[in-house]
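hiii so um. not sure if this is the right channel but i have a protein structure encoded as tokens and i wanna go backwards to a sequence. like what aa goes where. can anyone help
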């Protein structure tokens, strides 16, 4: 099967199959798919309700869920725990949701929510390095806008990934003559190219 051969579907990650079943409205097959994922402890789309005294907060990750690793999840939990000043055990994964990329749902004790919403720009930059561009707490949305220089570190990079981080490309200005070497003017132009896709690349599946 092509999906297995290309490692689009693995025993630890069946979101591609779940995505296809959701798109084709195959509810019974999707239910069996989820049952399999639970038995294999595999990644799949779901959201677990929070317990009393906890709250689910959605962190939007601008990356491909297919390539999310256990280490990536731990790093996200550790960073959030550091921001709200609690232990990593108090930051629980309560699911993954489809988006233009995906949401990771983290359950956080309500006593820490205020600290999370009042995070500094330095804390936002930490989350941006992990590909998190905004978070949602109920109807509140907090964007991780960068006001300081942050290097683009692709924590979920993969050579075959269909979703890439914003890149800078030098585009030569063909209509401009070469600058005087003494002045050393930079006549190059830069353009940010952002590729937004569904959590699973449909083009790759075809």
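sure thing!! here u go:
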């Amino acid at each position: 099967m092509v999906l297995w051969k290309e490692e689009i579907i693995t025993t630890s990650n069946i979101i591609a199959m779940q995505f296809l079943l959701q798109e084709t409205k195959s509810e019974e097959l999707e239910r069996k798919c989820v049952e399999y994922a639970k038995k294999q402890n595999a990644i799949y789309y779901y959201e677990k309700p929070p317990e009393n005294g906890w709250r689910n907060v959605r962190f939007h990750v601008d990356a491909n869920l297919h390539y999310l690793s256990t280490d990536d999840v731990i790093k996200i939990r550790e960073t959030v725990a550091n921001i709200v000043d609690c232990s990593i055990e108090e930051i629980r994964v309560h699911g993954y949701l489809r988006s233009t990329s995906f949401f990771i749902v983290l359950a956080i004790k309500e006593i820490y929510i205020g600290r999370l919403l009042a995070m500094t720009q330095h804390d936002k930059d930490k989350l941006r390095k992990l590909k998190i561009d905004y978070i949602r707490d109920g109807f509140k949305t907090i964007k991780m806008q960068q006001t300081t220089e942050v290097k683009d570190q692709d924590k979920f990079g993969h050579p075959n990934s269909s979703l890439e981080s914003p890149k800078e490309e030098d585009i030569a200005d063909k209509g401009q003559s070469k600058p005087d070497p003494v002045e050393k003017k930079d006549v190059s132009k830069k353009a940010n190219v952002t590729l937004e896709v569904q959590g699973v690349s449909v083009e790759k599946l075809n």
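oh and Residues 70-84 form the longest helix (15 residues).
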